[in-house]
Amino acid sequence: MEQNTATKPIRCKAAVSKVAGQPLEMEEVEVAPPRAHEVRIRILCTSLCHTDLTFWRLKDFPGQHPIILRHEAAGVGEHVHEVAVGDTVVPVFSAQCGDCPDWRLPLRPQLPARPGMPRDGTARFSFAATGEPIHNFTGVSSFTEYTVVDVAHVVRLKPGVPPEKACLLSCGVSTGVGAAWKVAAVEPGSSVAVFGLGVVGLAVAQGCRMRGAKQIVGVDLNPEKGRISGKRLGITDFINPNDTGEKAVSEVVKEMTGGGADYCFECIGSTSVMAEAFQSSRKGWGKTIALGVSSGVAPISIPPEDILMGRSLVGSLFGGLKPTADIPILAQKYVDKELELDEFVTHEMRFDDINRAFELLTQCFIWMGGDRENGVGVEALDNA
């Protein structure tokens, strides 16, 4: 973005959600200039993940309609020193300010629950024709050609990672790899079971392989995920729950691992699967990590004696990563060919086809990359 536009509104296209569960509508919107501690970003590639489907369908969630849902680079507001015009950045829903008490402690990511900018709650989007405000989503709102993001939600990347790969680090891949790295701290030679082989689950498998896990069991209803992509990303064994007969999946996992997996990861968002993953863990020290976003309110049922036997269940938000510190590390691992991102790319679609992308995501789990010519694109990720 040119320097002389930094203090002026910009008009551009955005995909606006006006009614929960209804197709997004392409609208001309006005994007206000950034205020103090904010950055205006030109979106080159963005993501569409299963979490977006969840919130898109919800009629009662913390956001409001009309809203621009979801999650490269710049226009800088006053008091911003972390990035400069022209930097390549990744916007992330989990903020890292570096100042508040939450960020003086490890593994304390934050997820804004209210619409509006995090510091003052006001909107930066409006309909160009009427001036009606449009709400943002999780501090990012990237289903638009330009967005305004608080600098605490921005991670600057060094050159070397193309935008259509860099955007994968803003959510799914980082969440999965981070869970294996930061939350579970998977040990070399250990056994792992991953429930749900979407992007997050496959990224978990890759993270566990990078950590030196010896056996990684993938559990999914789609055998393609375990036997093709999964094998390349670290899956050593595969279970299709439809093929276990009268046996529970936990029984099969215990047979495969000789008593239970050292680490189990639930990447679907089902409380019943969380319980099954917990039962698949090894007595004495088995650790279960829940990553999936659940849209329901059903409780998790775990017998108290199983907790007393030494097993544990922990939650994971954004893989326990501190974005500013950790995402550049993952980006460098991609440059050094230690981290696979290309494997997660299966489709490319234009921004105008975003509703078709939502349709495809409900049928199968896909990725779409950016349309370089028009400077904007859509990627679809899944965590289920």
TrEMBL record:
Keyword Zinc tagged: yes
Domain called Alcohol dehydrogenase-like C-terminal: residue spans: 200-325
Domain Alcohol dehydrogenase-like N-terminal: 36-157
Location(s) in or outside the cell: Cytoplasm
Molecular functions per Gene Ontology: alcohol dehydrogenase (NAD+) activity; S-(hydroxymethyl)glutathione dehydrogenase [NAD(P)+] activity; zinc ion binding
Pfam families reported in the protein's UniProt record: ADH_N (PF08240), ADH_zinc_N (PF00107)
Gene Ontology CC entries for this record: cytosol
One GO BP annotation of this record: formaldehyde catabolic process
Co-factor(s): Zn(2+)
Family annotation (SUPFAM superfamilies): GroES-like, NAD(P)-binding Rossmann-fold domains
Gene3D superfamilies, per database record: Medium-chain alcohol dehydrogenases, catalytic domain, NAD(P)-binding Rossmann-like Domain
Quaternary structure, from the entry: Homodimer.
Name of this protein: Enoyl reductase (ER) domain-containing protein
